[in-house]
Amino acid sequence: MRYWFPFPFLSLGLLLFWVLISQSVSPGTLVLGGALSIALAWAMVNLGPHKSVPGRVRPLFRLAGAVLVDVVRSNIAVLRVMLGRRGKPATSGFLTVDLTLQDENAIALLACILTATPGTAWLEFDRTTRQLTLHILDTADGMDWQHIIKTRYERPLTEIFQ
Amino acid sequence: MSELLIIWCMLLAQLMLGVAMACTLYRIIFGPRAQDRVLGLDALYVCAMLLLLTFGIRTANVIYFEAALIIAVLGFVSTIAFAKFMMRGEVIE
Amino acid sequence: MTVLDLPAWAAIPVCLLLLLGAGNALAGAIGLLRLKSFYARLHAPSLMVSGATILICLASMLTFAVLQNRWVFHELAIIAFMIITTPVTLMLLGQAALYRDRAEGSQEVPHKEEGLKTEAAVEE
């Protein structure tokens, strides 16, 4: 079973994508999509990605909810900065955070979250010093970004991928 | 009544996306540095994709969706290639 | 079958989503135009993607679901694709800009600690 389906979730996702694009659930589509998804998962084995299994599911949903709220809220905040009074946004600056997160896929997920949230941009992560460099669009809105990243995102991620 | 609403909303949305494309075009032409131009190009791709999606809604034609998907893929690959080029000076390592 | 055949109960949300999405994209583009530094401008496309793409794709889904009575939402593919790829492009662009600024010795970007150490070692 493990041999035939090295990455079951990847195969499932590819099959879903195939069905969505070809806009039908006819048997032919399913067979072709299934064969393609299994073959592409085999191709993935050669790349040798770092495997990690999400241990607990409940923090994952809580994290997703928090991210959704944050995306909407920071969307509005960034809109206000961009359309605001003439001149540049109050103060934008760089920020460095020391990450304690070890799992590589968790760090990739954190990168996706921080980039999808307007207002924070991921610039660089140094593997040797475990230091992350961010750019914050508006540092003057009274939010402690270091604290937010540490408690709001990093703690649930370590809970999920431990 | 609803027809009039749809016509004007479509027109307004397309106008807004067109102005957005013009803004990104300004960044591509006058961007002070190379990374600004690449960022403008990336935003231009996104705007073009959105404009195609609105065309698709307006004509109720699914073919625009495929074009939008292709533009999204092309924009991704070209931006990656440009960023790699700026970092290393060569695309294929 | 055109979009004008939409019943009123569907036309209003479609128009609202469409206008909000296009307005979001326009705001992102204006931000791209107005903000002063490259790193601040890096935030504009993420606004376009997370706001505008999702809203316009939702409008498209709603239109085709009502008009053609189909429930295969292939616009979800575009949303998923954009959400997955945008972090990668913006991260790479940010890294490239950081690398170029550091190579020019700009004082406005944070320096890498190892880089400073090796420079000191070279001087010794």
From TrEMBL, chain A:
Its main location: membrane. Signal peptide: none annotated. It is found in: Cell membrane. The chain crosses the membrane at residues 63-83. Keywords: Cell membrane, Membrane, Transmembrane, Transmembrane helix. One of its GO terms (cellular component) is plasma membrane. It comes from the Bacteria. Pfam families: MNHE. It is a multi-pass membrane protein. One of its GO terms (molecular function) is monoatomic cation transmembrane transporter activity. Belongs to the CPA3 antiporters (TC 2.A.63) subunit E family. This is Na+/H+ antiporter subunit E.
TrEMBL record, chain B:
The chain crosses the membrane at residues 6-26, 38-57, 63-83. It is a multi-pass membrane protein. This is K+/H+ antiporter subunit F. It comes from the Bacteria. GO terms for cellular component: plasma membrane. Pfam families: MrpF_PhaF (PF04066). It comes from Xaviernesmea rhizosphaerae. Belongs to the CPA3 antiporters (TC 2.A.63) subunit F family. InterPro entries: MrpF/PhaF-like (IPR007208). Its main location: membrane. PANTHER family: NA(+)/H(+) ANTIPORTER SUBUNIT F1, NA(+)_H(+) ANTIPORTER SUBUNIT F. Keywords: Cell membrane, Membrane, Transmembrane, Transmembrane helix, Transport. The keyword Transmembrane helix applies. GO terms for molecular function: sodium:proton antiporter activity. It is found in: Cell membrane.
TrEMBL record, chain C:
Residues 104-124 are annotated as: Disordered. It comes from the Bacteria. Residues 104-117 have a biased composition (Basic and acidic residues). The chain crosses the membrane at residues 6-35, 47-67, 73-93. Keywords: Membrane, Transmembrane, Transmembrane helix. This is Cation:proton antiporter. It comes from Xaviernesmea rhizosphaerae. The lineage of its organism: Bacteria, Pseudomonadati, Pseudomonadota, Alphaproteobacteria, Hyphomicrobiales. The keyword Transmembrane helix applies. GO terms for molecular function: sodium:proton antiporter activity.
